């Protein structure tokens, strides 16, 4: 009884990697579209209270559409903010109608970095400060 070793070995079928690469590419694109790369920050907002009608001692700043802060009294902003920090004076920021939200957030971050926590935002500076 002799063994016949002349039979060809069975070849494994070739697996095409093209479909695997396509599936991986689609998964990568899917996860890129679903993922959020933004970092959200929490801003503490205090609800405003109605005033008593008396003259406010708050520092009045005007935030322009280009992101510049101006004082209503015409003094330099840096000096006015330094005085507000030393006197623990509240700050009112009057927003022009076309100010992007990011400029408002940047202004709040700037005041928070200086140590000013009593800040109020007032919309439409053209009607409020004259």
TrEMBL record:
Keyword field contains RNA-binding: no
Keywords recorded for this protein, A-Z: Cell membrane, Membrane, Protein transport, Transmembrane, Transmembrane helix, Transport
GO MF annotations in UniProt: transmembrane transporter activity
Keyword Transmembrane helix: yes
Matches recorded under Pfam families: ExbD
Location (main, coarse): membrane
UniProt-recorded name of the protein: Outer membrane transport energization protein ExbD
Organism: Cohaesibacter marisflavi
